[in-house]
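Person: Please comment on this record:
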Amino acid sequence: MSTSTAQSSGRIASAFLGELDNEAKVTRQVLERVPADKFDWKPHDKSMTMGRLATHCGEMFGWTKETLKSDVLDFAAMDYKPFEPASSEELLAFFDDHVAKAKAIIAETSDETFMTDWTMRNGDQVYMTMPKVAVMRSFVMNHIIHHRGQLSVYLRLNDIPVPSIYGPSADEGQM
């Protein structure tokens, strides 16, 4: 997606596209290190498995569509089935597809749309209503960053080198 296309939709889209490019690049580097033979590993009984957490990091980029193309997410009306990759290649293809779709949706979203309200609910129970720009910031982007951080700890606990994320890691990269 070219910068001029993003700018034609608005300044908010342009800002999110720049951030998404960076976060997607780093997230992909983390996902590339998740071995399929560790998909079932988890550090604690209450924790997600490594495969589920890795898939969750990918699927959250897909939440861009749910946020920007609709005004309500109603869990009572959903039939959610999590994707379960059989290989690292399937995980990365799933991730790449969600990122590409998120970029296209953001690029075509106007500043006015970003400022409209979005509601998360479960039938009659409303969890939150806030502008879509705030949902993209907190529920989508910050949430991805949070779970990517968890996944980097999973890598460390399995002696898998952690890539540089916002600077050098103990395994690679010097500034």
